[in-house]
Amino acid sequence: MAFTLHSHSGEFCPGHAKDQLEDIVKHAISVGYKTIGFTEHMPRYDLRDLYPEEEMFATAREASSRKTEESLYEDYYDLQYDMLKELRPRVVGHFDLVRLMSEDPARDVRQWKGVWDRILRNLALAREQDGWLEVNSAGLRKGLAEPYPGRIIAEEWIKLGGKFTFCDDSHGIAQVATNYARTVTYLESLGVKEVWCLKRTPNSGVDGTMRATVEEVSVPLSAFREHFP
């Protein structure tokens, strides 16, 4: 049972993703997916929202308190903390996305005490809220050595007893399940045996008046390996 809980379509995210939602779903089924979650972006109405990622990173760094990457990371994790408190998300997406445009994406952020303390704080809050961290294979597609989250963060999450879910963060048919085999290997190297998914249960009312429910389902990592050796 392979799946993704984080994907996009060109139908509902034009200009950022490609392909129609139904075509993506059909392709996902063909490669073994049983569940697919679409997490479309809000529409962008201002040119300032359309800048390339590199320019956004530089602008954000200059706006940070000390105009350094370290202070940008601190701001990023402070904003993430605010989001966690306000929204209490079931799934925390690409936890350490900030490293994508870093001058040194492989940097050991434990060297930055303020950053590392914030990371540990956020992980603790997400765990307290019974949130899941997604293991996002898009980091590999974008040239990083590891998926999101990186190893040192994933290891801390494991120590907390946190659950992982799995996603490709695809933006069209061509990216469905991209680097899944490498991501499975990454999780295996961490000692992870299972990932978690959401399953919709049928409503129990004969006349359809009872609401369906969503339950958590454990998926053995070996089920992914069967599809992506």
Written overview of the protein:
Residues 5-53 form the PHP domain. With 229 residues, the chain is of the alpha/beta class. It has a single domain (2-227), classed as TIM Barrel. Helices cover 38% and strands 17% of the residues. It has helices spanning 21-30, 53-63, 69-87, 113-128, 138-141, 151-159, 180-189, 221-227, and strands at residues 2-7, 33-38, 91-92, 132-136, 163-167, 194-201, 213-220. A 3-stranded parallel β-sheet has the order 3-4-5, with no helix packed on it. Strands 1-2 form a two-stranded parallel sheet. Helix 1 links the parallel strand 1 and strand 2. Helix 3 (69-87) runs parallel beside helix 4 (113-128). The radius of gyration is 18 Å and the shape is globular. 31% of the residues are buried. The mean pLDDT is 83.
Fill in the keyword field for this structure.
single chain, alpha/beta, TIM Barrel, three-stranded parallel beta sheet, 38% helix
Stretches with pLDDT under 50, minimum 5 residues: none
The CATH superfamily bears the name Metal-dependent hydrolases
Strand content: 15-25%
Shape: globular
CATH class: Alpha Beta
Instruction: State the helix count.
Output: 8
Rg estimate, integer Å:
18 Å
Give the helix level as a range of percent. Answer: 25-40%
Number of beta-strand segments = 7
Query: What topology, given as strand order, has the largest sheet?
Result: 3-4-5
Largest sheet: 3 strands, parallel
What is the distance, rounded to the nearest whole angstrom, between the alpha carbons of the first and last residues? 14 Å
GO cellular component, one term: cytoplasm
Domain PHP: 5-53
Catalytic activity: L-histidinol phosphate + H2O = L-histidinol + phosphate
Protein name: Histidinol-phosphatase
